[in-house]
Amino acid sequence: MKKLFIYLFILLSLFSLVACNGSNESEIIATSYIGYDFTRAIVKDTLNVKMITPAGTDFHHFEPTSKDLISIKKAEVFIYLGIEYDSWLNNEETLKTYVNKDALVISLSSFHVETEEEHTHEENHHDHVHGEHFWTDPMEAVHMIEALTESLIIKYPEHETTFNENSLSYINKLTLAVEAFENDLNEIQNKTIYYTGHMALEGFAEHFGLDIHALENTYQPGTDLTSEDLKAFVNEMKLNQIKFLFKEELATNNTAKTIETLLGYELTVYELHGYHTVTKTDFNQGITYHDLLLRNINYIKEALQNG
């Protein structure tokens, strides 16, 4: 009887360990919402995917916990946006110390082909250019999904058919949304919108032929705003009798309220999402890049058609 209890205890312990490992360990770790969403769309239920940057957290200032670092070390695949974005990685040599030696490491920024204009701007100004926010262009997102799918198939060849089918399905949804918006914009003359954030949507604007006037006239987020910048922005809105305003995701309405006060009239305020991160509510509801793209499109159409 005593031996029976011992065997039962051992079996229960083993089952507990297997259950814990199966439910808590993620085969794929993504540092950003972009990497998480695209990977999730490709693999769906075949593999576990985890985003280590908590929803609702500013991606630019994220620092991993010791628990995050353990998860990264155990991951079979590590997907990051790029050293220039995931600043906590510091450099390629530091990155190597964080990941498992057998892990597939994917930099999403490596899928972006820099244009001559972007390269020249970087050399002259050493700041973010729209190429560094390339994911805001939905057709760049399509290219990333295609390249990411190929990389994951190399790691998991047994899932090639499933990954290709899932990838194509997601790409088709994005492409249809883009084509529909392009057709709608053909009927709209004024494509200028005013935005209280930094210049993080140049790729999006360029693809659709939009003119986004950013209050923070810089590619670096969180830049101190001068009173002259604010005054010029407000004067331009007043001159053009603008009745709507866009803000960054996660941003408060404080800046918009200040602008309303200076204008002397109320504004309709919309969110223009740069896909850096998502709120906890959106994340828990399974929001996708495609969903956010449609949200951006609907807000822009409403503003331009009624403004």
UniProtKB/TrEMBL annotation:
Q: What is this protein called?
A: Probable zinc transport system zinc-binding lipoprotein AdcA
**One of the protein's GO biological processes:** metal ion transport
Per UniProt, the keywords (alphabetical) are: Lipoprotein, Signal, Transport
> Which PROSITE patterns does the record associate with it?
PROKAR_LIPOPROTEIN
Molecular function as annotated in GO: metal ion binding
Q: Which organism is it from?
A: Acholeplasma hippikon
Report the Pfam families cross-referenced here: ZnuA
Q: Which InterPro entries match?
A: AdhesinB, Bact_metal-bind_prot9, Lipoprotein_PsaA-like, ZnuA-like
The gene that this protein is the product of is adcA
The UniProt family comment states: Belongs to the bacterial solute-binding protein 9 family.
For this UniProt entry, which residues form the secretion signal?
Answer: 1-19
